[in-house]
Structures are given as C-alpha cells and as structure tokens.
C-alpha cells in the first residue's frame, strides 16, 4: 500500500487529499487559506497524519498544487492547477474530455485526451470577473453569505444578467436593480449567468466536448451547474467531491511519478 | 468670516465619500465637509450640506444655488443643477492652483486625467471606464488585508526601499496579490511601495493620453495619500500640486459653477 498526499493551496481554501495506491481516497479535508501559505499547508498536513495515525515516513510522496504551491516547503514536487484538476476530474468521471475548474480567483478550462493528458487550456487570469470573486462581491453587495446565493438564485424565473464586467463596478448596477425592485433571485441568477458566460468563452476556445466536468470551489454552489447547463445545453458532471479534484489529482500524479521512477510496483 | 450677500454650494457624491463646499458671492471658499457615502446617497448629500451650513452659521435661504456632482449627482434632487465631476474637478483644481494645466483625479473607483486651459475649462480627458483597475479600490484592497487605514498604507509605503513588482491589475485581486507578495517574504513596506508605484504607472498611462503639461494638480480622495504623491512625483520626475483641500475639488468646482450660473442670470437681467 503506497500513500501519497495532494495539497491544493487555493486563493480562499486549502484542500488536502490522502490516497492509497493512487486510486482510493482515504482522507480529505479543507481549511481557509491564511496569509502564511506554508503554515496553512503544514497545518492541514499535520492534522491529516494525526487523524490517520500515520507518521511522515509513511507518506511516499507529497504533491502541491494551486496558486500557493511554491510555498509548500515539504512538497516533493508541484504541479499546475490545470494538470491536477484534470487528473482529479478523470478519477471521478473517466469519460471526462473537458475540465472546467472554477475557483475563487479565476477559472481554467482544459481539454484532455482519453489518457487524461492536457491537450489545450485557457484561463481567465486578468481579473476577478470569471471566478468566484465576482460572486463574492455580489453576495456582499446584496447582503448574503456566499454559501446562500446559489440556493436563492435557483428560484429565479427571469434572470437579469449583470452587464458590467468589473466586479467593483457591478456594485452600482446591483444597487440599481435592487432599487428597481427586481426580485433578488433574478439578480443573483443573472450574476451567476454572467460569470458562467465568461467562463464558457474559455471553454469554447479549447473546444467543448462531452463529458464536461466541473471542479473547484464553485462546484458547491448549486446555481453554477445549472447556469452552465443552460449556456452549454449539456449537463456537466458536478458532484460535491469534485471540490477536492485538485488535491486528489495531485495525489494521483504523485503515485504515477513513483511508478515512473520505479520506486513502487503497480498494485 | 465676512458676511456675504449670498452663498453657493457644491455637493460631490463620490463612490466612497460625499463632499460639500460652501463658497461666498465673491468666489471665496468658506467651508468644506466630508462624509462616507454608504448606500443612502441622498441622505449623505443632505448631511454634508447641512454640515457646511452648521460650521458657518449660514442659513439655507441664503444659499442661492446648489450644484450636485460625482457619480451619485442625479440623486441630489434638492440641488438646482448637476455638472459632471470632470468639469468640476477641473474648475476646483484651477481655483486652488491657478497655474494648473493637467489634473489627475483619483477616487474610490474612478481615475481621470484631465487637460485644462488657463481659464480652468476642460480641453480633453481620459478615464478608466471599463473597470476599477488603477483606482483607489486597489489600495483599499491592500489596506484591508493588512488591517491598516488608507492613511497608514500611504505612510508605510514611504519607508519601502525597493518596490515589489505587482502583477495584478484587477482591484479584486489586490488582496490576494498582497497576501502572495508577503508570503514570498517581502516586507509590508516594500509591498506597499510596489502597490503605489504600480498605481502611479497606470495613472501616468492615462495622463500621457491627454498630455502632461505642468502644473499637474492631484485631486480626489487618493490625493491625500502621501505614498501616492511620492510615487507619482518619482515616476513623473516633477513636483505635483496637492493640499488638504484637493479632495474637495469636485465640490468646490461645483459650487463655482453655481456662482457662474447666478452671475450669468444677473447679467441677463441687467441687460434687460
């Protein structure tokens, strides 16, 4: 039994996955990313080992990913978010051809081949408009928690898209819509559609092909798969465990690396 | 204070702060006030207006003209006229520094470069219309992460030795970018110095589009930030005008527009 660990240090959350033989997830956990990335990562790693009753020597490989991956000082290697999420998505849904990873900071669309290798990718990296950051601001302007807005948005019948791209400028538009007494659920669904509209552009650039698997923090927001389905006319894979796709994928990549280096035998 | 025949007032409803200015019949600035805008724009506008009246003891009936400006100007329904903040900042900057030919107005979510003539009239302008990159919001984001006030971040940035290169432009990313730079082991001072330098570079881009002709006057809320003033002066290699009153330029200009309106109306009367 070979144990590998994947740690995904995102802009909001740090996720960890511990795996056996690169196939079975034996532990996963999440914590808020703090300003000290290294400490955050060490913290989740420490509690994982403790809960599993493992020593550091028992772990064969630690792979870091996410925007804070370079700060994980106990890592064996680091991999990009795109590679890690693609691997993770494929573990949960083997027929995945497109991976859409929507995080707090930005989102990434990747096309993968039947062996799970990334063929092409695009990301929204210039600003927050294509990520959860936009929705966080909308939640703040409307006085809701980020965890609530998806559920409210699902009740919408006539969504009103937010035309402003800039998350900061969207504030005045949202305030205007509220004063015009547009129902809250329609404003919120409109905001989700606006973000997804921008994300879908990146997906189209890599080429939409079923199955599409959604990963990253926003997979937990029920309005996101709904909005994506509407724009793509196709149902994406969006189960809650895909929240951990980055960390899981990183752990899988760790195991594969060990196989390649012939340090372990295939189970 | 001289008792004037009448007064004019200007209220500048900005995205973050609402400012008011009271000017007498000879065009002298007599009072200014400031308040957080919040969500109730009209209420904030009424309150700052009441504040300049309270400070001076001038009764409302002696204010013959009130002009609204700023992004919330159309909500100031108790005024007589609305003028764009670009014209108002130009006029206000010209009032405080008569040799001004270029104005940089940096606010909570707008940055504007304005070229003006010797009479304080707008010749050309350029602004960030697409997004809040390069506006005060970016500095606010950095301040929020560090738990510091806007005044403190400016002061701390002066202690920076080497500005850290800031790669993000989106104001929403200011928080994560600051966090990331600190995580790399950069000092708070150097990160803040970098934030101000990157903001200065962006606004100089805007200024170049209208042409930089001295004197340059820096207005708006961010003009009170010493770190920003220093970063601009370093990069432009010239002195720039600022004073504690430059953040009121929009309101001062608005009041002066009111005075012009009244004088024009009176001239018409005299001619008749």
From TrEMBL, chain A:
GO terms for molecular function: iron-sulfur cluster binding; metal ion binding. Keywords: Iron, Iron-sulfur, Metal-binding. Its cofactor is [4Fe-4S] cluster. InterPro entries: ATPase_BadF, ATPase_NBD, CoA_E_activase_dom, Dehydratase_Activator_Redct. This is 2-hydroxyglutaryl-CoA dehydratase. CDD domains: ASKHA_NBD_benz_CoA_BcrD_BadG (cd24105). It holds the Pfam family BcrAD_BadFG. Residues 5-254 form the ATPase BadF/BadG/BcrA/BcrD type domain.
From TrEMBL, chain B:
GO terms for molecular function: iron-sulfur cluster binding; metal ion binding. The keyword Amino-acid biosynthesis does not apply. Residues 10-258 form the ATPase BadF/BadG/BcrA/BcrD type domain. Its cofactor is [4Fe-4S] cluster. Keywords: Iron, Iron-sulfur, Metal-binding. NCBIfam families: CoA_E_activ. This is 2-hydroxyglutaryl-CoA dehydratase. It comes from Caldiarchaeum subterraneum.
